Amino acid sequence: MKRKLKITCLLLSLLVVVMAGTACSTASQKKTALDPKNPVSITLWHYYVGDNKIALEKAVDEFNKSVGSEKGVVINAVAKGSIVDLEEAITNSAKGVINAEPMPDLFSCYPDKGLEIDQLGKLCDLNDYFTKDEQNSYVDEFLKSEKYDEKRLLNIPIVKSTELLYVNKTAWNAFVSQSGLNDSALSTFEGIYDAARAYYQWTDAQTPETAGDGKSLMGFDSVANYIIIGNKQLGTEIIDGTDSKAVLNRADLKKVFDLYYGGMCLGYFNAVSKFRSDDIKAGDLVAYVGSSSGAAYFPTWIEKDNTQSPIEFLALSYPVFAGGIPTAIEQGAGMSVTKSTPAKEEGSALFLKWFTAKEQNINFAMTTGYLPVEKAAYENTDFKASLDAMSAGDQSEKNVAAVYGIALDQIMNADTYASTPFDESYDLRTILEKSLMTTTVAGRQDAAAFRAQGMSEQEVLDALNLDARFDAWLASLRSQLDGLGIAYSEE
User: What pLDDT is attached to residue 16?
Assistant: First the structure.
């Protein structure tokens, strides 16, 4: 009897070990659903345009002719316009909106939108297709931002970026030579505000016959990022994914609000065109905060009075609020796989593995100005060779090469941040940006009216009453959050 009991216990122990081993290696041992004789067609929706779109289509064509042909997978890439257009199309498809297209098998996706689509039961957990070793090949912080509840893998990082401060060095140096400032003035947001005020006054004084026609120094590509990172630098995680709520810290929000609102209303900051790089080209701005992936779009010349004048490029680390912790955004859409058939899911995962492998990912990232996502890419000779080639290329390529060192340092060695999403965090981000931009438009109009009355800059600022304007903005935020049922706490 004792002998039978021992044997039974031994068998049970062995069974537990076998089951544990099977559970840990499901992704690698799963029987393939792919058949080269019956290729599966995968529809991929993305938002890339220009050189990025060309680079993606080239990669897809290479995959289809090589690994895809061998395994039985054909990728069909479809551009869906901007990221906003893509997200709207994905949402409509997932919700089954009338006349919406069927869900694609694979699509570009930011984490907060991915979580929203997952709540509709539409996303595949990619832990089933990516082994632990395969997941470990990615830069830890990049993969972490794509996981939900630190477990479910709903996105695979494709390329990443951060934000930097871009400067028209030619215009900045002309101002610096007269003002006595230097590049260190641009290291803090408060320093930028003071420099922008001095620049406005300096340019205004150049036309004494016309008062109040100074020029703007600074702009922001993403106001939402500015709000989120500004709060984070000051100690508040405004998008709290852990408790699924917004955190409204009055003191921190006030600092973020005053600097942006005051700067925009008084003309120290500006946003004229769709992109701040276009404002640089038109001579409407000297500097702006934008994505490291946008270095290739920084103009190499400005146009004034139908004359093109070459300009030099300067890239600096992301600014920090005085007394805050230096922090910059970590961003970049990954790709998600729709729940469908085993063959389509496996085929989509196969493409993602191939596309993010260093051999392909370095080429795509360097072409588009983004950062590769695999750890091994940064030790790869091709990566270093590409940097050297860009450094010896035309001015646009040199600009991109100059940005990589700063961007890599920010992401690898400094504090970068990607907010943890929750169900309504996508809407929260939109509310933060649109509400501040909307109230600023009204304030700018009021400031222009005050100036027309002959008020000085300080008198305009006093008349605007930033305390009252902030209270109105905060009340508007609360109202919009309540309207959408987004939980929030106030500190």
Answer: 38
